[in-house]
Fold this sequence. Notes:
Elements: E1 6-10, H1 23-29, H2 34-40, H3 43-57, H4 60-68, E2 73-79, H5 97-110, E3 113-119, H6 128-131, H7 138-156, E4 162-166, E5 175-177, E6 180-182, H8 187-205, E7 210-214, E8 234-239, H9 251-270, E9 275-281, H10 294-311, E10 317-320, H11 334-337, H12 343-347
Parallel strand pairs: 1-2, 1-10, 2-3, 3-4, 4-7, 7-8, 8-9, 9-10
Antiparallel strand pairs: 5-6
Amino acid sequence: MSDIALHGVNLSGWLKLEPWITPEYFAQAQVLDECAMVKSMSKQTYTDLIQYHRSTFIGEIDFKNIAARGFNAVRLCVPFYVFGDAGPFTSQFIGCADYVDQAFDWADEIGLKIVLVLDINPGNEGELSEYVPEFSSFNTYKHDALKTLSALAKRYAYRAALAGFELAAHPRIQKTFAFKRQSGIPAHLLRNYYREGYDIIRSLAGDDVLVIMPDAHEPHMWRSFMASGNYKHTMLDIHLDHFDEYFEMRGALTTQTLLATSKNYLHAAQKNGFKLMVGTWCSALPGLDSAMTPEGHIAQERIYMSDQLDLYRACDAWFFQTWKTQGRLSGWDARHAFSSFERRMICA
């Protein structure tokens, strides 16, 4: 694996549907998420829809445009059902391994790198357990998750485009507040899963491929983890696009507060000793000031974005959220958000 920093975009909403990326599908089906969509449609109707979407939403031209814009990598979340009926998970969802194959073909051709993320959320499964019984707890599907990770490693380990494997997407650690236990996965179980995932990747893909682990929004808990010299080319993923708690803020103070929060979070994560990847970030600001013009809001987003680019230069990788949205969402769609930035600002 090269020491060149990875500067890229997420390909969110491609292999699995996301309502904030392609809202028209959900409005037409009158549902809020893909699980409900699968339940409300016949299998053939859903199959036709998802296959049409996957074949048209992202294509080779997108990969070429990503590279032309100055990015050198993409982060691709691969759903747990990537191999469809071939397993190990079986569900009503439709597999997508052929599209992952295409992504590697396109990336190999133009020199882009790919970070593959196994899109599972230990301790944060939400309503998925209602549709896939195995997801009632992480212990019931951990073995199948590791089998899926193994199958991905066997399939893509020696593709030129592969940068690394990320072992999960959005895990949540179990906590206790005022004698009440908050839902999530016990920290030791998540650590054990990370160790087992690391061993699988190393046994099948060698020592050069990155093994990336989400910090589960707990930047302080990884300081002594994998501290021995037996673990190589590891990276901690921190997500810095969460601003819900600042939703009522307005004006320049919002930008300053969000940037300071990201800086403090980054500094806390750096103390763990891992290489760092900002797996998702955006330039969206929580709310519009009624006195601010649309042009002023766009200018403020650009300042916020530029400041973040400066901050994340201390990291070994970052991925903007995301490459494409149906409505070109300002602050989230890279085609819009980076439109006024020079290529050298991305490549630096």
